[in-house]
Amino acid sequence: MRHLAAMKYQTPGAHAMSDRRNPNPEPADWPEQRDLYTDDIQCEYVPRYSQWNILFCIGLTHVLGQRPSELRIQTSSGAVHGIYNDTATTVRGFLGIPYAEPPIDKLRFAPPRGKSPSSSPIDASSFSNPCPQTSSWSNESILNVLPYTLWNSAAISEDCLYLNVWAPAAKHREADRKAAVMVFIHGGDFGFGGTSIAYYDGVNIVRDNKDIIVVTINYRLNVFGFPNAPGLEPSKRNLGLQDQRLAIEWIYDNISQFGGDPERIILFGQSVGAASAAMYSYAVREFHIPSLNSLFQLEEAYLINCIQYPNNPLIKGIVMQSGTYTTGPISRHENNWNRLSNDVGCGSAVDSMSCMLELPMSKIVDTMATGNYTFLPTDDGLTFFTDFPARAREGKIADLPTLAGFNEKELAFIYPLHASSINESEVREDSQTEFNCPILEDLQLRLDNGIPTWRYLYQGNFPNLSPKPWLGAYHTSEIPLVFGTYNVSTPYSQPATKAEIETNAWVAFAKDPRHGLSKYGWPQFSSQSQYIFFPMLSGLFTFESSINPGLM
User: Fold this and answer.
1) Which of 228, 357, 414, 508 can bridge 516 by disulfide, Cβ–Cβ 3.0-4.6 Å?
2) Domain residue limits, the chain
3) What letter does residue 100 receive in the DSSP assignment?
4) What is the pLDDT of residue 539?
5) Nearest-angstrom CA–CA distance, 536 and 244
6) Are 378 and 238 in contact (CB under 8 A)?
7) How far apart, in whole angstroms, are the C-alpha atoms of residue 432 and residue 528?
8) Are strands 260-270 and 162-168 parallel, antiparallel or unpaired?
9) What DSSP string describes 302-318?
10) Distance between CA atoms of 202 and 46, rounded to whole angstroms?
11) Are 384 and 238 in contact, with CB atoms under 8 Å apart?
12) How far apart are CA 287 and CA 455, in angstroms?
């Protein structure tokens, strides 16, 4: 059995790191092969991805010398100034919006705090720096060859709690209708990843559909997001999950300013992003009531119960792509705090926290780069539990319509690209055990609670995404189809047509989580075993309406 921790990646050597956000690095700081420039007055080059150079076309911004009013948005974080994110000026991009105070200095291992309003306009024209991390993939990994990696990985910073919003411009939306909102949580084993990845670009979903907004969020990772230090109080263990919740609260409070409907927000995540969405269904908020010796306090306790997360999730549905709370990495409860703390010279005693707070970020990250450290969510009684099934049977789960599935050959991507073949039976068996079976268990618990669910099996095998025939539908390979970013230029680029690739099902779910997929022709998951192939997708997805015992 292979666990995701065993996916062969190499840690880099020295990192060029920053403790402050640098949204517009000088050319000397850019990764290699960033050699595309333009003299077009209507286009400004903003370095977003390595190797795959993208132009931000901001149209009237240059022509008029100031941003149009629809690019200037007032939020709880302050005034935000965005850009037109496509040549037709149909999509507005607001990139790098802070949703929390920078978790630096004494806030390093503290729960996130909402961002206080900025006194000056926030330039939302480029991505923020990624959160501290060390992982990089081997040159023999498909995840390194294709744009699944961060373009600005050398600019990591603790000041990383930012989000990005892609929203339709006035010419691309119905004046009297608020747009549905799709919030994406990235994967990465809770140790690496971020929003500045080419395949996570939200432009195409917004451009190719009416009345839809896409949001992607950064959250703290590895030891910075999941410290689990000795003696650490539960409310400070899973900071990365708390970051996600705060980002969702920010979106709920502010998305109407961008033309979005706060009552039509869904989460969609991949791998541990999917696991995060699953865990979000169960999370609770911590409140402190000293005693219940008065009627007023009893009423207060009742009100508090009504705003627990399962009763007030703020979102209306979740999509789990290749993950749930028991998927591969989540089932490993490893704690490397003591080892890391010792290795950086802080010892392993209870007071090691104070020492770790004083260290430069670079010291911690460089030390992590030399060893195999894993930091994951642990049971805090708030965001992560060891008894998810029991809680579901007690009804302690949010009533959120759910779309979930996995890829036929999830673990094919751990093989090096020079391989002429792989152990097909092992890959399929491990994909079933690591992904399909946990997802089936999760969906059955939701079904038992009367929650509408849908299920898929992705089987796509495109040469530009799977250049080796044996790769097939590997882990992450569905992402470019969901985002519509399959045409991003890569060494394996081939022409693709809109007829081949569809994001419509995800959008239909976002617009109406309870009925959208049924109207789209996708039957709900049920207790009877059957397979249904959806013709619009030419067999790329197998839409499953039930549990198939044979897959277990």
Assistant:
1) 508
2) 4-291+308-551
3) B
4) 52
5) 34
6) yes
7) 20
8) unpaired
9) HHHHHTSGGG--S-SEE
10) 16
11) yes
12) 36
Phi-psi region of 118 (alpha: psi -120 to 50; beta: other; left: phi over 0): beta
The pTM for the full model equals 0.84
Mode of pairing for the β-strands spanning 260-270 and 179-185: parallel
What's the rounded Cα separation, in Å, for the pair 195 and 165?
A: 11
Contact 223, 373 (CB under 8 A): yes
Q: Which residue has the tokens 């207790």?
A: 527
DSSP-assigned states of every residue in 42-74: TEEE---SSSS--EEE-THHHHHSS--GGGEEE
The residue among 133, 194, 153 whose CA lies nearest residue 368 is 133
Instruction: Round to whole Å and give the CA distance between 42 and 87.
Output: 9
Alpha-carbon gap, residue 219 to 156, rounded angstroms:
13
DSSP string for residues in 218-258: ----HHHH----TT--GGGT-HHHHHHHHHHHHHHHHGGGG
Is the domain 4-291+308-551 a CATH 3.40.630.30 member? no
Structure token pair of residue 282: 């169960």
What is the predicted pLDDT for the residue at 284?
Answer: 81
**Residue 386 to residues 76, 85, 239, 382: CA-CA distances in angstroms?**
35, 43, 17, 11
> What's the CA gap between 142 and 147, in Å, rounded?
9
The residue-averaged pLDDT of 185-209 equals 94
Residue 425 predicted with pLDDT over 90: yes
- Give the side-chain half-sphere CA count within 13 A for 106: 0
Would you state the pLDDT for residue 98? Answer: 98
Residue 431 annotated as catalytic: no
- Could you report the per-residue pLDDT of 99-125, keeping only the tens digit for each? 999 999 999 999 999 999 999 999 999
- CA neighbours closer than 13 Å in the CB half-sphere of residue 217: 29
The overall average pLDDT reported for the chain is: 80
Tokens of 44: 């400004």
Which residue type, as a one-letter code, is found at position 373?
A: Y
**Residue 464 predicted with pLDDT over 90:** no
pLDDT digits (tens, 9 = 90+) for 45-67: 233 333 333 333 333 343 334 78
* Mean pLDDT on 8-15: 32
Backbone angle region of 193, left / alpha / beta, with phi > 0 → left and psi within -120 to 50 → alpha: left
Give the per-residue pLDDT at 491.
65
DSSP 523: P
| pLDDT, tens digit, 9 for 90 and up, residues 298-342 | 444 444 444 456 777 999 999 999 999 986 556 666 668 999 999
Tens digits of residue pLDDT in 366-388: 999 998 899 999 999 899 998 99
What is the pLDDT, as a whole number, of residue 461? 87
Would you tell me the crossing angle of helices 272-280 and 239-254 to the nearest 10 degrees?
Answer: 70
Catalytic residue among 50, 135, 136, 271: 271
Main-chain phi, psi angles of 165, to 5 degrees = -125, 125
